[in-house]
């Protein structure tokens, strides 16, 4: 959630409870992020209709599951990502990157804007095409008083991918453990990567976009510390 006193911007809309049942993610019990999303908005004194803008980092099932809750929000997604969602290629379908009901949910959005490359919005936010994890990954740069923060989506999904030489990891319960740093490969890709060469190029681009190439200035979709971080900038 990004707020400047005039506009409420939501980055991605999360997952639905039925997706958990289908994907069987680890040992997590089905608890739909629809409820989590609505509760999080309520904590800020907001309802879905108060969201002015939605920006998608990409359209995988765990990022776009509640698109239909925001039909009136101006919505931005990379054209390459939208096209890939509709493509006949078997690979994304076999991996279930895009759920069959996603196009229908997006069809409820009245102002869906397809971005072709990089774009600076009137509110100061900057959108950048960063493929790798998906063909149309989108990075959001947020200018703040403390500098430029980068929302990476799943390219990279955690800071340990972007900063492979880190030697500490924070677990979901807040415990910090030692890990083995990788000093030979600067950016590690996860197994869910569409194009590893593009992933590497996008990682370099993201590092250049931040105020400083340091973990403090990055918010990564599946990073444990992002889940607990309440404010930045």
Automatic annotation (TrEMBL):
Keywords associated with the record: Hydrolase, Metal-binding, Zinc
Domain Metallo-beta-lactamase intervals: 1-183
Molecular function (Gene Ontology), one example: metal ion binding
SUPFAM superfamilies: Metallo-hydrolase/oxidoreductase
Keyword Transport found: no
Family affiliation: Belongs to the metallo-beta-lactamase superfamily.
Protein name, UniProt field: Metallo-beta-lactamase domain protein
